[in-house]
């Protein structure tokens, strides 16, 4: 049996992104538990602002192919104004049912404050509209500026409980990468504009 492929999409463009660190930690655990892993860093992809009349613009075809080939997808975002970040929204707009339907998806939110939950709820709704199976376990890193210690090349989590929650996200992505799909959910059946 082949190893499940887990890709992580980082919704932060910052050089010293805490979101990227968190996703890296989750991918490390995914690899330790038998997954093939890849970080899709949106800084490295040419994805212009989404235009339905130019849905194959830039590197869109290559990007969506990488997502489509995955067995499980981790979505990581910084929290901006209580929701998820524009780069991630733009990347998701290039995707649709072909990339997400019946896929296992794990969610990670990173916040400067102490309440990153609404961004996770918004991402969960988007994934349900694409008929993805979203892991019940989700991870959040609150007060991100205080959550890590060390420098960019040698960092670690300050709080082991946060580190464990993020690691379990990667573990669950591998564990449930091939879960039997559920019947289409109401949200996905009503998402008539998703293929436009």
Automatic annotation (TrEMBL):
NADPH-dependent FMN reductase-like domain sequence ranges: 6-145
SUPFAM superfamilies found in the cross-reference section: Flavoproteins
Cofactor(s) this protein requires: [4Fe-4S] cluster
InterPro entries (UniProt xref): Flavoprotein-like_sf, FMN_Rdtase-like_dom, NAD(P)H-dep_reductase
Any single Gene Ontology cellular-component annotation: cytosol
GO molecular function: FMN binding; oxidoreductase activity
Matching Pfam families: FMN_red (PF03358)
Family, per entry: Belongs to the SsuE family. Isf subfamily.
PANTHER family reported in the protein's UniProt record: CHROMATE REDUCTASE, NAD(P)H-DEPENDENT FMN REDUCTASE LOT6
Protein's name according to its UniProt entry: NAD(P)H-dependent FMN reductase
UniProt lineage: Archaea, Methanobacteriati, Methanobacteriota, Stenosarchaea group, Halobacteria
């Amino acid at each position: 049996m082949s190893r499940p492929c887990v890709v992580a999409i980082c919704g932060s463009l910052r050089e010293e992104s805490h979101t990227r660190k968190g996703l890296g930690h989750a991918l490390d655990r995914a690899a330790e538990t038998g997954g093939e892993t890849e970080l899709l860093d949106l800084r490295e992809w040419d994805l212009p602002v989404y235009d339905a009349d130019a849905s194959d613009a830039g590197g869109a075809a290559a990007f969506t192919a990488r997502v489509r080939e995955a067995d499980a997808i981790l979505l990581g975002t910084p929290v901006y104004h209580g929701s998820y970040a524009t780069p991630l929204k733009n990347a998701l707009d290039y995707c649709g049912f072909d990339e997400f339907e019946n896929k296992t998806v794990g969610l990670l939110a990173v916040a400067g404050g102490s309440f990153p939950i609404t961004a996770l709820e918004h991402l969960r709704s988007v994934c349900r509209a694409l008929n993805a199976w979203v892991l019940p376990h989700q991870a959040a890193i609150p007060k991100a500026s205080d959550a890590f210690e060390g420098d960019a090349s040698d960092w670690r989590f300050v709080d082991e409980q946060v580190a464990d929650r993020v690691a379990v996200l990667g573990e669950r992505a591998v564990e449930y990468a091939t879960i039997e799909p559920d019947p289409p959910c109401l949200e996905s059946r009503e998402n008539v504009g998703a293929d436009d």
